[in-house]
Write a sequence for this structure.
């Protein structure tokens, strides 16, 4: 179970969060919106496992600038996926606040949050999470259909993205008919379908062969050059080499942070 925080520190932290939640200064909110894709303070995420409480994210404050390429690395079980889920609005914190492009999402109702995610974030999962009964093309079209895009435009966009992924001849295949690398490329195409300003990826090259990993790395380089905010949890040295900023995460905490220069990239 997590240790109880020092009471005076807890009061200070709660006061600062309450102050942030009750901001009346519109100029400050505008600055958050203009400068940061993510602005988070005091994030805590606990999970109940039997009689125990596991703290996956432990009092994390983090800001990520628009257009920044951030890598989160750390050992398995460190809490990286839990942090990604909070930042992208797939999960809500037990404590703390999150602003996503200037909009507070940490206490947003699920229906509103789902719509927000659909338009603002593209998710790429380690296990692809493709819909098994839909073809590659239909999987890419799916988020566009939820957004109300006309069917003709859905198909045109899906065809364009799958071609970019070198999957022209796999459009009508179901996920089980695709290799792991092909499934991940479909998942990336799906993440890009609504042209979101932020991409969040959890180990996108895990368990893939070197050729596919290089293909995906090159895609992320292109996404970076398009000035899109990218947040990736990864151990892949190639992807880490593309980052503007690298955070080392362990036991729910940020234990190290590096800013990479153009030369290092």
């Amino acid at each position: 179970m997590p240790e109880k925080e020092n009471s005076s520190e807890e009061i200070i932290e709660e006061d600062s969060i309450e102050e942030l939640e009750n901001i009346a200064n519109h100029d400050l909110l505008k600055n958050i919106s203009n400068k940061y894709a993510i602005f988070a303070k005091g994030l805590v995420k606990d999970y109940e496992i039997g009689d125990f409480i596991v703290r996956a994210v432990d009092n994390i404050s983090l800001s990520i600038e628009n257009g920044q390429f951030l890598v989160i690395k750390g050992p398995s079980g460190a809490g990286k996926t839990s942090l990604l889920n909070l930042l992208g609005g797939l999960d809500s914190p037990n404590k703390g606040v999150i602003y996503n492009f200037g909009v507070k999402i940490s206490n947003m109702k699920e229906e509103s949050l789902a719509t927000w995610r659909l338009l603002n974030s593209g998710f790429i999962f380690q296990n692809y999470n493709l819909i098994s009964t839909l073809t590659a093309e239909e999987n890419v079209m799916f988020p566009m259909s939820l957004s109300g895009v006309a069917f003709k435009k859905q198909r045109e966009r899906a065809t364009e993205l799958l071609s970019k992924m070198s999957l022209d001849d796999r459009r009508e295949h179901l996920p089980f008919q695709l290799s792991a690398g092909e499934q991940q490329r479909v998942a990336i195409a799906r993440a890009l379908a609504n042209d979101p300003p932020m991409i969040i990826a959890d180990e996108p090259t895990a368990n893939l062969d070197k050729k596919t990993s290089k293909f995906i790395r090159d895609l992320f380089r292109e996404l970076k050059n398009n000035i899109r905010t990218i947040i990736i949890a990864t151990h892949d040295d190639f992807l880490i080499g593309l980052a503007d900023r690298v955070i080392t995460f362990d036991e729910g905490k940020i234990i190290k942070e590096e800013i990479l220069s153009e030369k290092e990239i």
